[in-house]
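Why do we bother with holo predictions? Because pocket geometry can differ from the apo form. Keep that in mind while you read this record for oxa(dethia)-CoA.
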Amino acid sequence: MKSVVVGFGGALPQKCIKNDELPASLNTSDEWISQRTGIKQRYVIGEGESTSTLATKAAKEALDFAKVSPNDIDLIVVGTTTGDYTFPATACVVQKNLNITNGCPSFDVSAACSGFIYALDVADSFIRTRKAKHALVIGADSFSKILDWNDRASCVLFGDGAGAVVLKAEENTDKGVQYCKIYSDGSYTDFLITSGGVATTQASGVVTMKGREVFKFAVEKFCDSFHELLEQNNLTIDDIDLVVPHQANVRIINKLIDVLKIDSKKVVVTIDKHSNTSAATIPLALNEIKDTISTNKNIVLLSMGAGFTWGAALIRM
Ligand code: UT7
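The structure, written out:
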């Protein structure tokens, strides 16, 4: 049994802030942000928008694309660390918003920027073990709500968004999720962490980050997990048609291109338009390129986030 990706969707908030529209008090510049990160703009939620509204919009788009009706969904997994509520899960709010009344399990996974690949691995496991036939897998975050807007080293990097895919169980196919491996190393918890939480400060806290260390770790783990993926699937770099890495910094992506010696045209970059939308970067990027993905293509997804968590997946379209 395989999990075939049959639908893609994405959602961004209405408000877009370009680099030169950031507050002057931040003492930053379009030049610094563009050169050091590749980011040109970010979207941030406003009134009436939240992680669940973005997740719902992306999910609806993915269901429409897949021509799957909401009540045929029998699993919803949302990768997020910025849900609307401490509980219930954002996945349950999405289930309500989509009027899914069939009682399917709906839950969130917390793996920060690796949330989508973690959610994909969980949903793929449900499908492979015949516990689900149609799964909605969403990556959604609203980091604008947990940023220290006085810390130029972190607040310029992130934005809000959501992306979704629909997975369908299919037998006797060479399409679908071929491989998905997720990892974590908790000894790095302090390197990328919020300054509080429900059981400590009774507030979410704000993002704090050792940027340079995160950068180095991301490059190393992108490359290691990519090599492991190739080895485990008996593939070479030439067998890969597209790479969709987590979008944290274009310089991390360029290092990946250098180390792997992969054609840069095969590597999807959306950070200029979306900034780092945490768990949403990969499904949002997939949504951007959905009309250009033809059949029989091998697509590699790579992620890295707080925890540290990281992961790699191989999808065949
Ligand atoms: O999804 C995972 C989460 N995050 C990441 O993956 C981020 C990974 N890390 C990075 O992308 C980069 O390390 C950063 C973009 C965070 C920082 O870039 P960097 O090239 O490593 O800069 P740096 O931290 O070494 O700082 C260089 C200088 C410093 O000034 P001094 O001490 O040299 O005078 C900073 O104060 O750049 C300064 N700086 C800024 N200047 C203008 C830091 N942020 C800004 C800013 N605008 N926004």
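The first strand starts at residue 2 and ends at 11.
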